[in-house]
Every structure is written in C-alpha cells, then in structure tokens.
Amino acid sequence: MPTETAPRFPSTLAPPAYYNGLEDRLRQTLLPVLDPYLSDPSRSPLRILELASGTGSHAILFTKTYSIQQIAEIQPTECDQYGVGKIQQTVDEAYPAAGVEEAPTSRVRILRARKLDVMDDKDWAALADAGEQSPYHLVFGSNFLHMIPFPEGPQRIFASLSQLDLVSPSARLIFYGPFRPSSTAFFSASDEKFDAEIAARPHDAPYTLGLRPLDELVRIAEGQGWTSEARHEVPANGNWVLVFRRS
C-alpha cells in the first residue's frame, strides 16, 4: 500500500547518484536547447506545467535563469504523494525565506507541488479545476516516458491536455530524455544497454519499462491533435528534446 513516506513504484526512480551535480549538468546540456522555447518573447510570460518533476530541480533551475517577464509561474507535479513531498522539500530548501504564497514578486513563482498520475483521470480533472483556470502555455516533462505505460501514458497526456482545456491554442509540449527511433532499432549501443538495464529492474510497476519509439510517439500525438514541431539531439548525452504543438 503506497504511503506518503514511500514511492509507489521504486523501480521507476533514478538512483540517488543521478542528482549529484544535476543542476550544473542541466544548465550546460539541456538549457541551451530549451532556451528558445522558454525565452520566446512572443509567448511570454509563460505558465508552465511540469510533468514528473522528480525532486523539482528543473523548476529551481528555471527560476534562477529566467525573469518573471519570461516565466510567470511553474506548476510542478509528481505521480504520488512521496514525490510531491520531495519536490516541496527541494523548493523549501532553495527558497527558505519565503513560502510559495509569499514568493517575491520579482521571482518566478513555483506553485505548491500537486499529485498528477498521468493515468489517473481524477488527477487530471483536479488539475483542471484548480487555481486561476488560466491555460498553460508550455508543458514540460523530463526523463519519464520510459517509466510510464506505453502507449497508454502518452495518449492520456496528449488527450487530457487538449480535452480539459488545460493548455492554450498555441501551447507546446516538450519531452526530454532517451528514445529509440522505432520499436526495432536504437540510436546507439549505450541506449540499447540502458533499455535492457531498466527493463530488468525489479518489476514493481505493472507494465514494461523501456525506451519509447519516436515514430510511434509522433503517431500518438497526431491522433490526439498534436503535431511534431521539432526534434533536437542533445550531443552531450545522446538524449532528445521533442517539441510538439497543438494542431
């Protein structure tokens, strides 16, 4: 029985060593690729919904990098209350002088973390009912598609964002992480090795873990009213930034 003190699916979590120096790695490798989308003056200021926020490292990095004129606020989420607590701990440690509601007006607001299991319609509905009802301009998710059900997970994400009017008509959805070109190939030997490693983890998740095929992901998106806008390889680690927009 999952509790607030234990993760729901431990096998889907990154090992603790992954977080050592993570902010510096993100700033050097990922941020240059994301910057044109996060600092786009034609869409500023952004309301950002982050899926599978992990410990909240991305939200903290974005607040340190961008002004409130570029990003108005960020809504972090995780799939269980354990993850929600981890995010809130990170945010509170980074900004101990002010709570979420008392954040300085000069700083990008990080809203209190919410539970969002992408497979749970009730969580999606609660997100749609929360807050100021303003749509999100950008949805971002990092290193998690290989840890959720496929194809059901991405289908729920694309469909829920559109059908519940959670995003603006010109919204972008950006995924970052490792992928494979198709269900029969890999981009590299290291990707194939990583795929085998995560698939062999203790099977506490009731579905198969593994790198997801880009060609199938694009078809899923198109079936839910989204178009593949751009695909960027991150040379430093062989991961990808996939950008989708509403059709």
UniProtKB/TrEMBL annotation:
Signal peptide range equals none
* Pfam families named in the record: DUF938 (PF06080)
Q: Which family is this protein grouped under? A: Belongs to the UPF0585 family.
Please report the name of this protein according to its UniProt entry. Answer: Methyltransferase domain-containing protein
